[in-house]
Amino acid sequence: MKWIQWLTGPLPEWIRADSPFVRYELAALHRSAHRNRRRLQMVGIVGVIILSFWAGYIVATGFFQHEPGYNLTESLRAILFWPVLLAQVVAQISVLLLTVSMVSEQQHRQAWDDLRGTANGVRMSMRARWAVVLFYRLRWPLLVIYAARVLMILGLLYDLTAFQGHYLDLLLNGVMPTVTPVVAVLLLVLLMAAALLLPLTSLGLDAAVGLLLATRVQQRTYSTLAQIIMVLFRLALVALIVWGATQFVAGRVQIDAGQGWLLLAAFGAMGDWSLSFLHLSFMGSLWLVVPYSLLLGAAFLLFALAQAALIDVVFAFAVRRAERAG
């Protein structure tokens, strides 16, 4: 966590590695996996990442019957999309599984009553679980997710230099609403900011919702059932949004402009967390087809900020319920 502290300054107690609550959660993490098992998991993760990127290249070259892209950034988007989407789905499912089982785990360890009897014990324990899940257990999926975004942002900045710096002017011809290149650049900056915020705010909100459900489903049998239902629902939602958006972009689904805007908004906000929209040529084609899609970046940023605000609301509600319930 030192790199986060270097960026943000002093961290709150519930996220610092020297906090007793964080140490407790980390100790449980270490107990749950033997050293050799963890090494095998690391090898498996690396293998899955390599196979995923290889599969992305095969899909781009084989299914579409052409090279993965006509330029560098188009190649990056074609190859990165499916592996990063897989990493995001794994992260979403992991967040739900690791938080919805918190209360049942503490009760199984016979530690829940002690936490409820300690001043701010429940709040600090739930905060520690939230932080450990996001910044410790999911550090490898997040590394893949953010490395891909950094590459795509660099590719977007590189695209802006095409045609002697006038590529953006060409993409804005016939776009609704009519804006100047300066305004378009500002909107792209909002899009990049949203693409960097959405993974953390989305996973953070999922973790808060998981903790809230943990206070309602405390028996281990019901907790397991809730985990299965949540995983199936998450998979179905992501699959539906991604399928609908890809069909619309490919021209296989005919819907009006308003429906197309909403579908793209859902795709960017909850499907691939705006990764695809970091490709300038791809966005330029959408600007022409879907009116006002130039404003998607601002909409995504507002959505991410709303998620960040909702995290505290859901978490506070989960803590109050946990302190009242048994």
What would your notes on this structure say?
The structure is a single chain. This protein has 326 residues and is mostly helical. The protein is 79% helix and 0% strand. The longest helix has 36 residues, at 181-216. Mean pLDDT is 80; it is low at 60-68.
Short key terms for the protein model shown above:
326 residues, mainly alpha
Quick recap:
The protein has 326 residues and is mainly alpha-helical. 79% of the residues lie in helices and 0% in strands.
Uncertain regions spanning at least 5 consecutive residues: 60-68
What integer value in Å does the Rg equal?
22 Å
Mean pLDDT: 80
Q: Tell me the strand percentage band.
A: under 5%
| Percentage of residues assigned to helices | over 70%
In total, the number of strands is 0
Largest sheet: none
User: What is the count of helical runs?
Assistant: 15
Structural class: mainly alpha
Q: What is the distance, rounded to the nearest whole angstrom, between the alpha carbons of the first and last residues?
A: 33 Å
H and E order: HHHHHHHHHHHHHHH
Principal-axis shape equals elongated
Please write out the topology.
Blueprint: H1 2-8, H2 20-31, H3 35-63, H4 72-100, H5 102-108, H6 112-117, H7 121-137, H8 139-159, H9 162-165, H10 167-171, H11 181-216, H12 220-249, H13 257-271, H14 280-289, H15 296-324
